[in-house]
Amino acid sequence: MKAEEIKSLFESFESIAIDYEGVECWSARELYPLLGYARWDRFKDVLVRAKESCENAGEKTSNHFADAGKMVSVGSGAERQIDDVMLTRYACYLVAQNGDPRKPEIAFAQNYFAVQTRRAELVHQRLLDYERVQARAKLADTEHTLSGVLYERGVDAKGFALIRAKGDQALFGINTAMMKRRVGAPDKRPLADFLSTLAIKAKDFAAEMTSVNVQQKDLRGQVKIEREHIDNNSAVREMLLRRDIRPESLPPAEDIKKVERRLKADEKKILSQKKK
Predict the structure, then answer these.
(1) Planar angle of CA 212, 214, 219, nearest 5 degrees
(2) Which one, of 115, 20, 104, lies nearest residue 70 by Cα?
(3) What residues in the chain have per-residue pLDDT under 50?
(4) Using CA atoms, how far apart are residues 210 and 213, in angstroms rounded to an integer?
(5) Is the Cβ–Cβ distance between 110 and 171 less than 8 Å?
């Protein structure tokens, strides 16, 4: 295809994208002419095959293909409603994959929606990575504050480490060393660096409660504070178990340091592109 044709199709696909119930979608009625189809009846067969592909991929069809009505003019100012389907970006990709590959418009759409769908996946993954990094930073801040509170109440660094270990035992049902082996964390690295976002937030919640209660109850000494921290972690564990979540069984996560480096590298790449 010529550059002019590619630019024209790109602009056409972008121009008919709409917000449908908070999701970026395309009207099948507006899309099918852009894909080189002259008749709706012929295009409906493509929609059927695309829905089958969606089901085969393990996706819920209704999340990507939403039946909708569309009002069209029939002359003399009168209108009537015709069937339409609102397609997500992923649904559009499947439609293109099931279209007539001999049509240049289909070839363009296959690549256009493949790139855009991949971009959406990358954005989603980056958001998940960012959330985990933020959760890890929050836990570090919480534990730093807690260590300061405990130091004022007669607990030194060694005592804080023991209290934290007791908290891990109460939260995960196994000791820190065993939990490290389960998630593949090296002995000299913090367990939290290899935990899932949910597990990190669970530790943070328990530590926050300990920090608050130690001050409100004016607890002093390692024994009383240790009991408080165990109780708080046990409470968080019980809450998770009631929701059928076993914190020790949550899947291990990528080394947080690698995630941080990847996010920073992406930021540098974006900045360098903006300067060009």
Answers:
(1) 160
(2) 20
(3) 274-275
(4) 5
(5) no
- Write a three-state SS string for the chain: CCHHHHHHHHHHHHHCEEEECCEEEEEHHHHHHHCCCCCHHHHHHHHHHHHHHHHHCCCCHHHCEEEEEEEEEEECCEEEEEEEEEEEHHHHHHHHHCCCCCCHHHHHHHHHHHHHHHHHHHHHHHHHHHHHHHHHHHHHHHHHHHHHHHHCCCCCHHHHHHHHHHHHHHHHCCCHHHHHHHHCCCCCCCHHHHCCHHHHHHHHHHHHHHHHHHHHCCCCCHHHHHHHHHHHHHHHHHHHHHCCCCHHHCCCCCCHHHHHHHHHHHHHHHHHHHHC
Amino acid, single-letter form, for residue 51:
K
- pLDDT 10s digits, 187-236: 999 999 999 999 999 999 999 999 999 999 999 999 999 999 999 999 99
Q: Tell me, what's the pLDDT at 110?
A: 85
CA-to-CA distance for 266 and 259, rounded, in angstroms? 11
Which pLDDT score is estimated for 274? 45
Instruction: Indicate the pTM of the whole model.
Output: 0.65
β partners of residue 26: 17, 87
d(CA 23, CA 243): 29
Instruction: Indicate the residue type of 200.
Output: I
